[in-house]
């Protein structure tokens, strides 16, 4: 979650550290607890500007625990859709989410249909029930955040079930990493 910005709003060090760890792109979580959205939009602009300069890729992950305005999501996606830093899959801008429950809006009609560019949508989930998750729509795939109390074996089992469903449904599964 972007809660503070580095001096001068320059994310060069963050991007270089990620590059050195062979990380291809950043998911920028937009939202969070007690967030000032105006301030966070400034951070987002700085991150995209730095990524453009360094020829690095980023994409927005909407934190649905706090973002309650679907128009904000559409506006942000449209604002950065043509940025050289915008991560794309098959020439579609990548948009993901973090959510504990689905938001009050309809992703297809209230957001995806209103974005001015094709979207590769990967909603987030906290569920380890891959068959249930992959039967949901819309989505070109899913972005699971597995609960930190799981054992390594439980995580491996969940990963295996996601891989099976990914292959069966012809969708992708984006694995999350966090420091």
Q: Overview of this structure, please?
A:
By secondary structure, the chain is an alpha/beta fold. It has one domain (7-173): Glycosidases (TIM Barrel). It is built from six helices and eight strands. The protein has helices at residues 12-20, 37-53, 70-80, 107-111, 130-133, 152-169; strands at 25-30, 57-63, 88-89, 92-98, 119-122, 124-125, 141-144, 172-173. Strands 1, 2, 3, 4 and 5 form a five-stranded mixed beta sheet that branches. Strands 6-7-8 form a three-stranded parallel beta sheet, covered by helices on one side. Strand 3 (88-89) and strand 4 form a beta hairpin. The protein starts with 11 loop residues before the first helix and ends in a 6-residue tail after the last strand. The mean pLDDT is 87.
Q: What is the CATH class?
A: Alpha Beta
Shape: globular
Class of secondary structure makeup: alpha/beta
Q: How helix-rich are the residues, as a percent range?
A: 25-40%
Strand content: 15-25%
Return the domain count.
1
- The CATH superfamily is known as Glycosidases
Fill in the CATH topology.
TIM Barrel
Please name the CATH architecture: Alpha-Beta Barrel
What is the radius of gyration computed over CA atoms, rounded to a whole number of angstroms?
16 Å
The whole-number mean of residue pLDDT values reads 87
What characterizes the major β-sheet?
A: 5 strands, mixed
Order of helices and strands: HEHEHEEHEEHEHE
Number of discrete helical segments: 6
Low-confidence stretches: none
Total strands: the figure is 8
Distance between the termini: 12 Å
């Amino acid at each position: 979650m972007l809660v503070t910005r580095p001096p001068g709003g320059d994310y060069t060090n963050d991007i270089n550290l990620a590059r050195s760890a062979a990380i291809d792109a950043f998911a920028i979580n937009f939202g969070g607890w007690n967030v000032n959205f105006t301030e966070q939009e400034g951070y987002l602009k700085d991150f995209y500007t730095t990524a453009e300069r360094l020829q690095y890729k980023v994409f927005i992950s909407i934190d649905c625990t706090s973002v309650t305005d679907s128009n904000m999501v559409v506006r942000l996606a449209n604002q950065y859709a043509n940025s050289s830093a915008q991560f794309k899959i098959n020439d579609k801008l990548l948009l993901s989410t973090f959510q504990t429950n689905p938001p009050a809006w309809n992703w297809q009609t209230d957001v995806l249909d209103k974005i001015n560019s094709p979207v590769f949508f990967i909603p987030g989930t906290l569920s380890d029930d891959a068959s249930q998750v992959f039967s949901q729509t819309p989505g070109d795939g899913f972005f699971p955040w597995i609960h930190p109390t799981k054992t390594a074996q439980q995580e491996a089992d969940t990963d295996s079930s996601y891989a099976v469903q990914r292959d069966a449904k012809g969708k992708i599964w984006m694995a999350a990493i966090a420091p």
